[in-house]
Amino acid sequence: MKWHGITYLSLAGKINFDEQLTQLFITTILNLRSASMTFNELKKNTKKDFSGLKELKLALLGDSSTQLLAQAIRGSGYDKQLNINVFDADYNQVDRLIMNVASELYVRKPDYTVIFESGHKLLQKFNKINVAERVTFAESQFDRIRKLIDVLQSNIKTKVIYFNYAEEDDRVFGNFANKVQSTFIFQQRKLNYMLTEYSVKNAGFHICDISSIQNKLGRDLLFSPSIYVNTESLLSIDALPIVAESIVQMIAANQGQIKKCLILDLDNTIWGGVIGDDGLDNIKIGSLGIGKAFSEFQFWVKKLQQRGIILCICSKNTEFVAKEPFVKHPDMILRLKDFAVFKANWNNKVDNIKNIQQILNIGFDSMVFLDDNPFERDMVRQAIQDITVPELPKDPAEYLEYLYSLNLFETASYSAEDANRTEQYHIKSQIEGALSFFANENAFLKSLNMVSNVQNFNSFSIPRVAQLSQRSNQFNLRTVRYTEEDIKSISDSNRYTTFSFTLEDRYGDNGIICAIILEKLNPKELFIDTWFMSCRVIKRGMEIFVLNTIVNYALKNGYQKLVGEYISTDKNALVKDHFPNLGFNQAGMFWELEISMYQNKKCFINNKEN
């Protein structure tokens, strides 16, 4: 039996598959495929108009033919509104192109360098060495890779995306190979682990997890022996879109395209049944039957919350009835404290989601909405075009596998402060509620007892600053995206001065909420290369406190002028008048502030050190 290019054993064959299990397997594969476009669809994308899209340069190096993968990457980029110009190098030229700093690779200066070295070719290398050398095969291969990356990153500023190795088990020892260090599968797994450890230490080195993709798709879908023999291409036509999408998702995340918020329906989405009709004792959640699927789904959602994804509820329900399971049901994994906003009423979901967006002050394109009801999904899709609304399977048992395949929450950074994001939105809500009790805004701001810890970038703040760079869209004056590696390089350079700002008040600690990068143009002028800030703290006077801090630094160090720039995007209209509002004067495309003419403005934030 054939199904979308996948061959299955007939039920009448040697292995008797249970019909239900066979159908479940087929459904899982189809769900994975539905998450991506076909290769032909991606090829059509490459013919579309890319003008106006953000342009990025990418070099694709491989030990096998990558021509079709290059097309798939460019086509997939179009759907992310990225104009990815791909330099597809001749295959098996990885070492030559990287070690020769006069090669075409260095002339092109790619923003991203993708290196696809396959498990198949790795096995060929392993087969050619002496048996005695096989116990150190992983170390020798890792040393080679590390040297290549060191040479590459020391000569050009490029982010490296390196494929780990999809497993190739030659079955020479069978399962016993896990006990024998000289077997290929032992060494390959060891090498993959070494690459993972290396990626933790090297902020500019990222892993495209093709091993995980193969685990989901199956090796028969990822690799086609007949295509490889005839074309030197190791990826099947069916797998190309999925692999390309994985690469583009990583690039898009580095460019600030990330999901920040998950909005959930309740009935038959996070538990089985209808709480208003079935009652607390009869909803399906726990360790029995379909309840297992909902429990495992909640564990996944909980891990997203712990990672820093904002959780919200949007349900057609009576509020006190909807909240009861979160308080009283012993098998609930999610609790009320896990949600930043809880909307349970009889309003239409479009209006509720728009209200959630206003409360959180993030873009609709940063939101994901999950609902079991196709009518509600379609209504939200049509009314709010930028929001992501996955087409959940009818069977709740399939929710997780389908959502895994979408990889909705790809990110380019993670910091310790992420775990506190829900609490920070709770604080924001408390502050907005308290404002109504004060006669004027100044009296309220004074009552908050706000303090800020101002420091130069350091090892603690760099991950958070990089994250703010990638996440901040509205309060971001130039919208220049920086990775951890970029921020560390800036921090170490004498050309720049950096500041990070925290904000604490009587309600709690918001952590690092603002970052400034000043470039020293000359002994008299400072250029505000970067000014981004979390929208959670808008209207608290933070921008005044920041400018006072910058001006004080300039005065102490003999600078006479601050130069700022506003680069308009679709999302940062909020700060269009930021510089004129702070007293800067327009000078062509830039804004200038004479330091001697500036007087510190009043605000209600104190420096924590004072």
Number of strands: 20
Shape: globular
Q: End-to-end span in angstroms?
A: 75 Å
CATH superfamily of the largest domain: SGNH hydrolase
CATH-level-2 architecture of the largest domain: 3-Layer(aba) Sandwich
Beta-strand content bin: 15-25%
Total number of helices: 24
Mean pLDDT: 89
Number of domains: 4
* Helical content (DSSP H or I, runs of 4+): 40-55%
- Unreliable stretches (pLDDT < 50, length at least 5) are 1-17
CATH class bucket of the largest domain: Alpha Beta
Output the radius of gyration.
27 Å
Structural class by SSE content:
alpha/beta
Widest β-sheet, arrangement of strands: 13-14-15-16-17-19-18
The CATH topology label of the largest domain is: Rossmann fold
Explain what this protein looks like in three dimensions.
The protein has 610 residues and is α/β, with parallel strands linked by helices. It folds into 4 domains: 1-34, no CATH class; 41-254, 3-Layer(aba) Sandwich (Rossmann fold); 261-406, 3-Layer(aba) Sandwich (Rossmann fold), CATH 3.40.50; 430-607, Gcn5-related N-acetyltransferase (GNAT) (Aminopeptidase, 3-Layer(aba) Sandwich), CATH 3.40.630.30. The protein is 41% helix and 18% strand. The chain is built from 24 helices and 20 strands. Strands 13-14-15-16-17-19-18 form a 7-stranded mixed β-sheet, with helices on both faces. A 5-stranded parallel β-sheet has the order 4-3-5-6-7. It has a 4-stranded parallel β-sheet with strand order 10-9-8-11, with helices on both faces. The longest helix has 19 residues, at 137-155. The radius of gyration is 27 Å and the shape is globular. The relative contact order is 0.07. Residues 1-17 have low confidence and may be disordered.
